[in-house]
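Annex B. Sample input.
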Amino acid sequence: MKTFAKTWLIAPLAALLTPVALAAPPPGLLVLPEFDTLAKKATESVNISLDPSLLGLAASFLDSSEPQDAATKQLITGLRGIYVRSYTFDSDFAYPAQQVDVVRAQLSAPTWQRLVQTNSTKDHTRVDIYVCADRGVAQGLVIIASEPRQFTIVNIVGAIDLAKLHQLEGKFGIPKVAVPGDGDGDKDGKGR
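Annex B, continued. Sample output.
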């Protein structure tokens, strides 16, 4: 009789916990490799993982009385994560491009749509920007920038106002990305 009672107690508990265990990752979230081997070779590395609780903590340090901080705070309220991986090396092509391509392979239609792609065969640089949209609302953004001595991957997860996204540049480890022809005076696309 005791086993029967335990079963009746455990079964409802298991039913409640099962949806949590089987919950799908939020739209717009990539699986980023650890890049541990590359981090050891890099002269500089950035590894930022801000989940919802850490984003809330970071937002608490922003000063709402400052217009730029208030705008940033409002922008990150709809986010579910910011993930940045960036590595700089002493020599050209010190990282295998296949590791970056593993991330690019996740960015396929219909979930992901490419917004921007720039390539320079002269400088061996490439920038890809993708958006994950659900019912007309951006739910994720990915920026992958690769150069001979550096690559950076930024994954922003959650409801994103694309028109205000530039407010996150330079914050939370998100680099400023100069895209050739974006009107920033960077005519040659080298970010100078």
